[in-house]
Each structure stands twice: as structure tokens, then as C-alpha cells.
């Protein structure tokens, strides 16, 4: 796996009351004793944890020349990632996120716009061309938020040149630009949540009718890029995948939710790990579902115990019926 996206840390803040924060509202809350990380770090960590030490993972990104950056670099290295294409950006701070949570476990995330991650440009991505060439035709690329779209577009272009499988994700505010600049045409698997799906089709989210939005996204993507697959998560409403022929829905696995922060990233990681292990999209979706469910049982955005054994125990405890090939992967 070769990917770019946000590398950074953050803090988690639990707000009082479950109603959505208003524009001019003041609300109390408290900081949580939890570790928060940014998208690329979360996804690559889980892919590595699920596929093992021998599976090569190459993150591409920048961190600041500060204590936070040094700590994160060390943590990623200890997790077994190849850090050759993660650089220190002198004079810049490491990306920082502020994750706010409601008591029911839902929430959102704010990230700094000026950070080392903003210095990831197309030229920096091009420096990783040797590893793309080395694994030509045998890798999955990930283009994730929190680095500029221009850099992510360049990775999509290079990965297509070297016959990689392109997974891409965009924030709601990026969806229209991603469409206008042709990034969706280069995407093999578009992995988004229901709010981002709504932004793509220009509709307000409909909490009671998420599948109608998914179907509308499918129709739009068939016009933009008919060969693209789709993954859409919708919180308590479960997730959908589309492989060009079949629409698959999986309900959530009932677990005690400690924090939903990072659950979407865990879901993407599970799908990438499943596809890398040779599973089909629907099987990989179930692995994503398991990963997302397991991740919310921790206050941290990287659950320290999420691995194949942990997911196998979740399957047995929840008595989920899963594909034999997926269960075999969890046992190996």
C-alpha cells in the first residue's frame, strides 16, 4: 500500500448535550484522556495491523520539526511502516486536529489549515515514483484528505500509470473540486461517508433515507467513471458498497460505543486490507464493518488492540455470520 494524506495528532473534547452545536452557541464540556491521530496515520496503521509485518506500507507526507512530529514518526516506524517518504518540514507545525464528541458517541473534527501537511505538493509525491515502479501492478494507492488536492491528484495519476488500484476519499467541501478536476475519473474505489455522498450529488443529507442518496451517487458515478467501485458509510445506518453490478448493504455490529472518532478511517482500512488479501469487495466491506465496530470501543482514534485476532473475537462474541474466506483470513 502506498498512500498520502494527513499525518498529525490532536485532542478530543466531549461536549455536554447531544443536540448539534449551533453557530453562535456556547457549550461546556471536558477534554478526554485519549490519543487522536490524522487520517493517513490511522488508515495505514490499521492496514499494517491487519496484514502483518511482511506487508509493505509506504505513507507519503510531511510532519513538522516539533516534538509532536518526532513522536508520530517514531510511532509509525515502530508499527512497521516504511518511512522513507515521510519528511520533516522545517519551520512548520505538525497537523493538529480538534475532535469534538457528543455523549452519544457521534461528533466531528476540525483541523488546522496551515501545517506541514499543506507543504505536500506534486513534486513531493513524484519523489515516491521509484516505489510505485517497483510494485507496478501490485499495489493499492490511497489518496486521503488533509493534504492538498493537487498532491493527491498527482498520486492518482502516477498510480494509474503504474497500474495500481486507486482508493480515494474526499471531504464534503472537496467533492465538487474533485469532480471538476477529473480526480473521480482516476478513482477505482471512492470511499466516502453519507455527508460526502450528499455533497457529491448536491443534496442535503437525509438521515431517514440514506440509501436513496447512495443510489443517486451510483447513477452519477456511472456517468463520470463507470468502472469505479463505491463505499459509503452512514453511521448507525450501516454501510453500502457498489462493485458496478451489485449494491451491498451491511448493518452495524452492536457494540458499546466509547468514541466514533476514526471509525470511518478504520472502515476504509478494513476494505483496503481485505482487497489486498485477495477478498472480493463485499467480503472486504465486512472486514471494514468489523474494523469500524471494533475501533469505536476505544477512546483513542487508533485502537491499540485492533488486529486480526481482535476482530475474530468480535465475530465470535457478536455471533456474526461472515464469509468463510474472511474468517480464514482472521484466523491466519
What does this entry look like structurally?
This protein is α/β, with parallel strands linked by helices and 332 residues long. The chain has a domain at 2-17 and 30-120 and 257-331: Ribokinase (UDP-N-acetylmuramoyl-L-alanine:D-glutamate ligase, 3-Layer(aba) Sandwich), CATH 3.40.1190.20. The chain is 38% helix and 20% strand. The chain is built from twelve helices and 14 strands. It has helices at residues 39-51, 67-78, 122-126, 129-134, 149-161, 175-180, 194-201, 210-224, 263-276, 281-295, 308-318, 324-331, and strands spanning 2-4, 8-15, 29-31, 36-37, 58-64, 86-89, 95-101, 107-111, 140-143, 165-168, 189-193, 229-233, 239-242, 247-250. Strands 6-5-1-9-10-11-12-13-14 form a nine-stranded mixed beta sheet, with helices on both faces. Helix 9 (263-276) packs antiparallel against helix 10. The radius of gyration is 19 Å and the shape is globular.
Amino acid at each position: 500500500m502506498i498512500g498520502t494524506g494527513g499525518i498529525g495528532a490532536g485532542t478530543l473534547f466531549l461536549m455536554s448535550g447531544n443536540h448539534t452545536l449551533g453557530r453562535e452557541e456556547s457549550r461546556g464540556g471536558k477534554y478526554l484522556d485519549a490519543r487522536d491521530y490524522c487520517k493517513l496515520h490511522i488508515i495505514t496503521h490499521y492496514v499494517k495491523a491487519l496484514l502483518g509485518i511482511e506487508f509493505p506500507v509506504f505513507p507519503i507526507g510531511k510532519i513538522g520539526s516539533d516534538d509532536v512530529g518526532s513522536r508520530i514518526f517514531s510511532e509509525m516506524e515502530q508499527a512497521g511502516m516504511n518511512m522513507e517518504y515521510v519528511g520533516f518540514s522545517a519551520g512548520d507545525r505538525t497537523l493538529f486536529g480538534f475532535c469534538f464528541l457528543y455523549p452519544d458517541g457521534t461528533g466531528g473534527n476540525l483541523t488546522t489549515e496551515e501545517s506541514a501537511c499543506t507543504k505536500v505538493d506534486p513534486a513531493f509525491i513524484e519523489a515516491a515514483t521509484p516505489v510505485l515502479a517497483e510494485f507496478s501492478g501490485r499495489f493499492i494507492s490511497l489518496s486521503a484528505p488533509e493534504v492538498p488536492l493537487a498532491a493527491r491528484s498527482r498520486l492518482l495519476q502516477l498510480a494509474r500509470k503504474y497500474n495500481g488500484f486507486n482508493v480515494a476519499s474526499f471531504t464534503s467541501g472537496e467533492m465538487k473540486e474533485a469532480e471538476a478536476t477529473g480526480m473521480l475519473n482516476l478513482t477505482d474505489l471512492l470511499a466516502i461517508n453519507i455527508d460526502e455522498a450528499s455533497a457529491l450529488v448536491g443534496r442535503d443529507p437525509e438521515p431517514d433515507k440514506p440509501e436513496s442518496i447512495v443510489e443517486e451517487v451510483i447513477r452519477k458515478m456511472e456517468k463520470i467513471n463507470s468502472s469505479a467501485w463505491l463505499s459509503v458509510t452512514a453511521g448507525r445506518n450501516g454501510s453500502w458498497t457498489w462493485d458496478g453490478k451489485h449494491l451491498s448493504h451491511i448493518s452495524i455490529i452492536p457494540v458499546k460505543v466509547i468514541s466514533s472518532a476514526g471509525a470511518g478511517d478504520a472502515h476504509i482500512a478494513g476494505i483496503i486490507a481485505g482487497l489486498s488479501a485477495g477478498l472480493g469487495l463485499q467480503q472486504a466491506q465486512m472486514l471494514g464493518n468489523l474494523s469500524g465496530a471494533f475501533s469505536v470501543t476505544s477512546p483513542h482514534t487508533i485502537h491499540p488492540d485492533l488486529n486480526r485476532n481482535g476482530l475474530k473475537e468480535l465475530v465470535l462474541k457478536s455471533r456474526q455470520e461472515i464469509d468463510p474466506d474472511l474468517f480464514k483470513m482472521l484466523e491466519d
